[in-house]
Each structure stands twice: as C-alpha cells, then as structure tokens.
Fold this sequence. Notes:
Layout: E1 20-23, E2 40-43, E3 55-57, E4 59-62, E5 80-83, E6 94-96, E7 99-101, E8 104-105, E9 121-124, E10 134-136, E11 139-141, E12 144-145, E13 152-155, E14 164-166, E15 169-171, E16 174-175, E17 182-185
Parallel strand pairs: 1-4, 2-5, 3-6, 4-7, 5-9, 6-10, 7-11, 8-12, 9-13, 10-14, 11-15, 12-16, 13-17
Amino acid sequence: xxxxGDESSRDARAPREHPVTLSGDIGTTDDASDxxxxxxxxxxxxxxxxxxxxELRGITVADGNANGFSERPTSQAGGLFCDGAGAGxxxxxxxxGMLFRGNEASDPITPPTYSLSGGAIVNDGREGGTSSPRxxxxxxxxNGAGINGGAMFNNGEGGTSSPRxxNxxxxxNTAGRDGGAIYSEGSSGASSPS
Length: 194
C-alpha cells in the first residue's frame, strides 16, 4: 500500500497520501450480514511455505464477517487467516504498518462455538504446522470474536503459533469469553507470542 502508481522506487511509498483498503463490505453497503467471511487468506499449506519474505505493508483490512456455520475458515478470522496448519507447513509473513478495523468472527443466529475466534487475525499452526508472523507498527481497532481473541487468535495446538508483535496498538477489541485483544492456544504444542 501507499503508491499512486507512478513512483520509480519503493522509497516513494506514502501510505497516508495513498491509502489502500481491502474491505469485506462487498454486498449491501454497511450491512455486515453479506460481507466476506475472510478478507485476506494466506495459505501456507499449498505451494510452499509463506515466510517473513512475504510482506503486507501499509494496508487497511476491514469489515470481514466470519459468520459461517462450518468450523474453519468461514467462522474464524474476519480480517486475515494465516494458514500454516499441518506437518511441515508454514504461514509466517511480515505484517507492517497495517490497520485491522471492524472485523468480526461471530454468528448472531446460532449459539457461539469454539471456532468463533480471531476477529481480525487467526494464526493457525496446529497439527505440526507453524504460523508465527512478524507484526510491527500495526493497529487493531474495533474487532470482535464470539468466543476467543477479539483481535487475534493464535492456534498452536499440536504445532506452533508464536507471532512476534512489536509496537502495535490494540483498541476496543472484544471477545465473548477470553482474550479481548489476544488469545493463544498451545495445548500439545506451543503458542508464545512475544
């Protein structure tokens, strides 16, 4: 994000002057019921690992609504689903200068289930995989989850999900049960954000 399109180098980036928003509000404007389940999907389970060399910078990810009925991914990660689940798989990109705003993982119709987690981001490194992105200078605002991790859910169950979070701001994120900002699950694995 941050380019008008006529720049000749990466140094000319100006995210404030040239904002880029990836929005899940694809149906009726301001009606969340028909928004995208997940705005950005990073799949490290096919085609090779996603490492820190993969970068998203200066982008707003907004208005995803993971209100689907199946366990994943339609009921997790309204904003970004980082899938590194499964033995030998990895999803560990670099996310810098990002804004995650107004993303939800909740279903207003059915009773909440365990899967309604990670309003803005789910880092899925379960079952022998790895999902440990580097997240710097980013803002998580007004995101919510029906169960755990209003802004972020780190799933290291049987694998590893330990994102490195630096100089980030978490504002007004909510969860129905635990972790209004961040919830980490590491049973039979590791989930130790730093």
